[in-house]
UniProtKB/TrEMBL annotation:
The keyword DNA-binding applies. It comes from the Bacteria. Gene3D superfamilies: Tetracycline Repressor, domain 2. The lineage of its organism: Bacteria, Pseudomonadati, Acidobacteriota, Terriglobia, Terriglobales. PROSITE patterns: HTH_TETR_2. This is Transcriptional regulator, TetR family. It comes from Granulicella tundricola (strain ATCC BAA-1859 / DSM 23138 / MP5ACTX9). One of its GO terms (molecular function) is transcription cis-regulatory region binding. Residues 22-82 form the HTH tetR-type domain. Keywords: DNA-binding, Transcription, Transcription regulation.
Length: 221
């Protein structure tokens, strides 16, 4: 016989099955994402998240003791879905460096242009002063992780004699910044996207990759 405790079915006094628990977490994170995007961080309520998830507030607090931890969890999930595949599929490729950087740049730009990404950026900026813990969760599971992943790739290219870079962390920030800054600024100011259509994205990426390689590609003796 099963009983429901805090919205999660349990068998006797044991823990819920792993698959059931994961499904419950997914529902809560889906509901939290929708609620944060709709209301912002400060105005998002646990009661609203619980209602959307079909769970109880007690269940949410048992999994995520604070709203900050819930936000960090949804950012970690977003990173696992979007950034980890980018690292494994693109930056671990042994293709020529210009091809790898081009694919990486396309993925970064397309991700930044999504409505969800732009709304998350606005939430972070508007709530940063009151809730500085959000900035850490956002950076560690988004921009910071992407930059660190690119740095590791650049380190390998330097070791292989392909690139000549004095500080690969600076170079990773420089490359992503050259792609992202104008997009993020337009998003923050609620301006129309500066890159409309695939041709504009392609031209932007090519300029960024070409400039980066002119600066850092190791020239032959």
């Amino acid at each position: 016989m099963s009983e429901t405790i805090s919205g999660v079915k349990r068998r006797g006094s044991g823990r819920p099955p792993a698959r059931e628990l994961e499904a419950h977490k997914e529902a809560i994170l889906d509901a939290a994402t929708a609620t944060f995007l709709e209301h912002g961080y400060s105005k998002a309520s646990t009661a609203e998240i619980a209602r959307r998830a079909g769970a109880s507030k007690q269940t949410i607090y048992s999994l995520y003791p604070s709203k900050a931890e819930l936000f960090a969890a949804l950012m970690q999930r977003r990173s696992a879905r979007l950034i980890d595949p980018l690292a494994s599929q693109v930056l671990r490729d042994d293709a020529p460096v210009e091809e790898v950087l081009r694919r990486f740049a396309f993925q970064v730009v397309r991700l930044l242009l999504t409505e969800v990404s732009q709304r998350l950026h606005r939430i972070i900026i508007s709530e940063a002063k009151s809730f500085p813990e959000l900035v850490g969760a956002f950076w560690a599971n988004g921009p910071g992780w992407g930059r660190e992943t690119l740095k590791v790739y650049l380190d390998a290219q330097v070791a292989g004699g392909v690139l000549e870079v004095g500080n690969t962390r600076y170079a990773a920030n420089q490359f992503i910044g050259s792609l992202a800054d104008v997009i993020v600024m337009h998003s923050m100011l609620m301006l129309p996207t500066p890159l409309e259509g695939e041709k504009a994205i392609g031209d932007w990426v090519e300029m960024g990759v070409s400039a980066f390689l002119r600066a850092y590609r190791k020239m032959g003796d």
